[in-house]
Every structure is written in C-alpha cells, then in structure tokens.
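Support reply, case 0932

Customer input (verbatim):
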Amino acid sequence: MEFYNGYGVEEDEEDLKYALHNAAEVGDVERLQSLLKKPEPKPSILGASSDVQFMLPPSMHHDGPNVNEKDDDMCTPLHVAILNGQLEAVRILLDNGARVTAKCDGCPALHMAVCVGSHAEHAEFAAPAVQLLVNHGAVVLDRDDGGRTPLHWAAASGLVDVAKSLLDAATVFSSQQEMVVGEDGVPKPAEHLPTLQEFQDKQGNTALHLAARNRHAAMVQLLLCQGEGPSPASCIKQRNKSGLNVLHLAALGGDVETIKLILNAFPAAAVASTRQGRTAAELAAKRGHLDAVPVLQQQQQNGGKTTEKPSTPTAGHHKSKHTLILAPPECLNHHTAPWPIVRGESPPPENVNRLTVLIKPGQGILRTCDFEDALRWDERPRRAPMGDILRVHNWAYVRKIQAVCQGIDDDPSEVGHLDPDTAISHRTFSAALAAAGAVTHAVDEVVTGRARNVFCAVRPPGHHAGPSGVVTCAKDPNGSHGFCLFNNVAIGAAYAMTVHRHAGIKRVALLDFDVHHGNGTEACVANTAPSLAKYAFTTPYGEGVQQFPVYRPWHDIDDKDNIFFASVQGYGPKAPGYMDAYVYPGSGATCDTKGMLSREVEELADEDDEDAMLVEGAVKIDELDGNAPTGTGVSSQQQQQHHNNGEQQIEEDPDHEFVYSGGEMPRTEGPRIIDVGIPGPGSRVALWRRSWRDKILPALVKFDPDIIFVSAGFDAHKKDDINFAYIGVQEKDYEWLTDQIVQVANRCCQGRVISVLEGGYKIQGQVVSAFARSVAAHVKAMAEPNGQEWDARDAKWEREHEKQLRAEAEAKRQAAAAAAMAARLAAVAEAEAAQAANALETGEEEVPLVPAGGVEDGVADILGGSPPPISIASPNLDAAAAPIDGEEEDDGSRRKRRRSTVDYVALNKKLEEEQKAGAGPGPQ
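Our regenerated output:
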C-alpha cells in the first residue's frame, strides 16, 4: 500500500511559514539548523539605536521562522517532529526555544511522545524523547484535556520502559517540591503532592486501572511495586466513576496473569462487589473468560487469602486474532483535493489523510502495539462486481458516476465535483467499487467463520447514497451526495441475504451512529418494498406529475420482514433561530415505522396527500404478548428467541421517551425503520446512550438478526468540526456502544458484526486526534475477548439506577432549598423583631412585616415564585399574618396598612453572600 510520506512543499514559498514543520516532519537536521541559525546583527536602519529598531513592526526585524508557529492542524514544529519520531529534530527544536507546554488539540507534547511510542517503528524513540522534554521543563504531572497524565497513556499501551522513565522523573519532581521558600525567605515543607500513580482521569481511572483493563501484566507489576505513595491494597481498592476497582477491570479483561498479580497484592479484592452486586469472578464468567473464573472463585471462597505466588509476567497477553481489518489500497486513490496535500492548504473534511491516521504504518492508530496481537490485516484489493452494486443502486446512477470519473484526467492533482460537497477524481469510481468489495468480502469472512467480526477502513463513505444517489427531503429539497457514492453497508447486507442464504443468513440489521442521518441507507432499505415514486415536471405547455413503480428487493418479496434499520443522529437547526437551515441532511426526526398509520400522525405531519409516504412514529411498543402486526418487520418467529431467555422480558422504550413529535418519516410499508433525532445544539450524551440502550438495542434483539452491519461515523464527537455542536460524545461512548452491539451479536448471531467507516473528520494530531482515538476505541471493543451476551436485566438495572440518582439529586436540591428558605425565614423574623423593638423605643405604631399569606409570601419574590414546602420546624406563621394593601377585613371595610420596610432583595443578597462564604457550593 502506497502512502505519501508527508506534506508537499511549495518551492516558491517566500515567507517560509511552514518550513520548520516540513523539515521536522522528515527529520532534515541540516535544514532545521539552517533555518534556526542566528543571523549576524544587522546595522540599525536610519542609523538609530536598538531601541528604535525594537519599535519597528515585527515584519521588519523578524529574522526567521517562528519555532512555535502552529499549522492548520494546530501542530508546532515540535509536535510534527514528535509525531514522526524524529528525535534529533526534537532536540534541535527544544534547544532553540520550542515550548514544551504547547498543546495540539488538548494534547501536550509529553503525552504525544508517549503515544507515538506505541508504534513499533518508534519504540526506541519514546523514552529518550520523554527525557528530553522533561529536561526542557515538561512536567510529568500535567494532564491532557481528558484528565490523563503521560503515565495513563503509557499504562494503557503497556509501555513499561516509558513508564519507568516517567516514574523516575516524577520522583525527581516531587523531591524538588518538598521544600519551598516562603515569603519571609525561610524554607518550609511544601503541600503534599499526590504521587503520579494516584492521579485519576476524568473517568476516575488511575494508571493501574488502565493497565489492568488492557491486560498489561508487566505494567501492573511495575505500578504495584512502586515503593512510594499509597499501598498496593489502597490502589487496588480505589474505584473509578463506574464503581469498578482494579480487580473488576482485570476480570473484564480476562488476563489470568494480571488477575493473579492483583490478588497476590490484595487478596481481599476477590470479595468486593460492583454496584450491581457482582464480584470479579461473576464479571469474568459473564464475559466468558473461563480460564480466569476458577482463579477468582478460589480466592473468593478463601475469603481473600493468598494461595500461590504468581509467576513473573510477560510483557503482553496473547489475544486471539478474531477481528479482521480490511483496508483496500485503492481507497487511497480517491482524491478530493490535489495530491499531495500541501501544508497550509485547506482540503475538504473528507480526504485521504483520514485513512492515513488509521492505517499507515508508523502513524496509523490501528498499527500501534495496542492492536498488535488482536487484529488480522488484509489489504488486497477486491472490487465489487456490478451485480452486487445493482442490487441496491440504479444503473443510470452508477453509469453517471462512472462517466464523470472517466472524464477527469488520470492525474492526482486533478479534482472534479459531483456537487459543492462531494469531490471526486479519475480513480474515485474504482475506489468506490473497492470500498463496496471490502464489505462483501467481510461478509464472506464472518459467515464462513474465518473472522468473528470485521472493520472496513474504506472511503468514499456511503450512508448518504440512496438508490439513485442524492436523497432529498422537505428541509433540503436539493440534497447532496454528502461525500458518498455507493451505499457500502446496504450493498453488503443485500449480498449477505442473497449469496449466503443457504448458510442461514436471512435477517440483516443495519445500524448507524454517524451524527448525520443515514438517509441513503434508509432510502435503500425502504426501496425493498414496492412503492410509487412521484416526479413533478414542467413544460412550456403545462405542469404535471409522473408516477413510476419502484422496487429493488435484496432477496425476495418478504424482505420487509427480514431487514431492520436504526439510525441515531443530530436533528435540528444549525443554530438557534435558524429554523430553515437544519443540520445535514435535514431528515432523521424521531420515529418508528412499526404500527399502523394513524390520523394523529397525519395531523402532526401536516400532510394532506393521502398517498404520502408517512408512517406512525414511535408508537408505544409492546410485543411481549406476541401480537405484532403484520408487515412491520417483526415476525411471529421473532417472539420466540432462538436462545433461552428464562424469565427475562425485553422492554422497548419503557419510559416512552422516544416518541414521534413531528417531521418527515419513511414509508410504513417497508422494513422496520427506527430514527432517533437528538436535539441540539449542545451535548446530549445521556440521551444518545438511552436511545440505544432503551429503544434500539431491545428492538434489535427482538428482531433477532443473523448478521449486523454498522455504519460507523465518528463525527458526533464533541471535538468534530462539522456537527454544529450536536450530541458531543467521546471515545468512551463509542467504546460503550460498540461493546453493546457485540453483546447483541453474541446473543443473536454468533458475534457476526461488520463495521464500515463513514464520517469523522477531526484528524488533527494524527495518533492523538479525536477521530483516530474514537476509531481505536470502536475497534478495541470489537477485538477484545468478549463472550458476554446482551441482557435486558442489565439495561433495566442501569435505568433504575439512573432514576435513583436523579431522585437523590432532586432530594438534595429540595433539602438545600428548604434550608435556604429556613435561613430566609429566620432573617425575616430577626428583622421583624428588630423593627418591633424600634417601635417600642420611638413610640410609633408597630407595623407587621409579613403579608396575610405568611412569611413565605413575603420572600416569594426572592425565590422567584411560591416557596417550596418547608419540612423543618418553624414559628407559627398564622399568628404573624396581617392583611395586605386593599384586602377586605371580616367587617367588609378597607383599611390601608403601611408597606413593609424590609428590603427583601437586599436581604436576600446578604444571605446568599453569607451562605457562599460559610457553606461552599450547593448541589449540582
């Protein structure tokens, strides 16, 4: 596979803006030294002093390139040198003032050097690079934007030598902080600093947690043997934000050597339970780690007593090669910008570098040691034959793409466009065939059992490509290809149903977690049922509408019962107030085609045409009684799961959260389609997770697929640039969802999952980029040993636990509000007493300070409405009540009273200040 090594360089680049970056990338030491060489002092212009020259504009006395200049990828020359493993370039740049504190998209240089060391090509680079950076002021206790120290990343990848360097540097740093000089000039002990091993990331994980979870026994041994800091027992007992201790995580990973090390250091961990009440042995058993279960059970039965001394662990743990990576080289020939891409230019988001950061040796994140024993690679080109393409797409559309590509010169610098969004080149058509061919080959691999699951690293993507290409909708009547040509997952699903029907592949499921609605896939799925397509036309003599019967089955007339599609996406305006400009493609409102079309839905959809392609959205789903309506993609066979569920019931959207509330919907006559539109802008991670856990995954299990296809788009990440701040998930969320899909596949279809790359564009920082790390989290969850089957009881427990947490938070909020009210009541009573005393001294008539409704009404203005009920003991407020202005007395006469002289606003402000000073922050 041919990769271009680095950015191109403009020969006529006069300002040398990125000359340092380019030299650092290829390790051109002589060029770097020449660029950074201090020039001879120049005579001052105008014969003036140096002070006058200092006052000149920077452009008149700048003598060379800026060593800390950032390129469009937010990388300084130092970052570029580190990412490419150029140690001598790193040294030169540091010696010439490169800042070690500069970050690339939230990642400091020290963290970056550690992550680069996970490539075999740069294994000798990381440790000396770390030492160089520390010698020039990098602090090993610094965190990245995920709260991780460099040790976290070394532990996650099992880089023992790098971890030793970091721990040594941390010891030196801590010793330097033990004594500080006070303002009086006298040395005194510094405040206690936690050891490097104690630092937790934003998920509550220490380095030891990550080493245990990722099955790195040698790293676990290193971290447990550190003499300074907390004891091994306290480190093992520490729980992350999911409530899991180190042994729990090791049990999920299933490495016996790691488990034995932890048990030897703290045997009592064997009896510790998770929030769900499961011990480590139960976690390992549920995960299918049969070799680890006896070890854990023995310790648990012995009550936490050591039984044997563990052997010295090896550097890694062998993992079965059951996940296949398909990466056809022809996908690199789909050029959307003139190639090679020159640093400083702005290529479109979908460009060849998206594959580079994933699969290029020495740079791609899937080539790191984290996946060394877990993945099997196949990079042979396999173009899909035309028959496979035409099961899904119309020939007229396919021929159009072919002709447009042939019309472009076979030169990588020549680029054409299908529309403003979608660029193509001469070899794009063959790349699209190769992408589709990779998916059909993946089907062969998983059906025959040669691979348990497959990730297809392909481009161009496909989930916006409908049967005839562009798919339009009411909010975008013109539509766009959205970077997509052929619908890879639909082609693969149709191939599986047809070619492997005799192998038992009948029911296919397609899932899409890209931030943009999989409108093309949805259109292809709907097209497996007969319908009428309507097209308006205009001539000089009039207007009209033509109707055409359309139907493209993937196998047979019962496709509607054997295909399932679900998509979760951002749905709403690009920005508040822009109701006519929705996030691309403008479709994807929450709906579910299961059920009958009702009058209520017709009214919500505001559609008068009785033949319109509408469906009832998100009807309450209750199939437990076996009364599934016909023609909805749910067969009677589905009600009897092929495995033993015991007493387990599968609840689908039990809280009725994902119901139709308006918007365009697909036809009701075809296969079952579930869309969940996540509103925005703004982070909606919890809602995104619930949509999968409570709605889609239960429906998927009921459907009982024979194979699962995933449109894996990673542009819902909170750092991605083209999602208009919708959804905002992170790597851990992609890992969670992938693990859930694997569990469903384990339960329904022998683990058969085929994941196909779609979107995701935040590639700045290469191996440390949001896109690369998201894909890595996804593939990791596919590749790790995992025999766990999806269990509805787990979802129910999580749901109830979340409700309990919300109830507790609400109770705390109400308690805090009651306490605040009590304080305000006490303050009002104090003010009233003071006024009464003042009235006695002056002889004036005493005026009650509170209205007839009691003190609560008097402070209602402060609280912004009626105060909450007070559950604490309080004075008898009825005795202090008095009529307000204009209120009628019992005798019917009106008697005016003087208004209260208490300034409630000022009083409230004073109380809030006192509360902040004394009580600290309130509940969140």
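We compared this against your earlier run and they match. Two observations from our side: DSSP finds 32 helices and 19 strands in the chain. The CA atoms of residues 42 and 540 lie 76 Å apart. Please reopen the case if you see a mismatch on your end.
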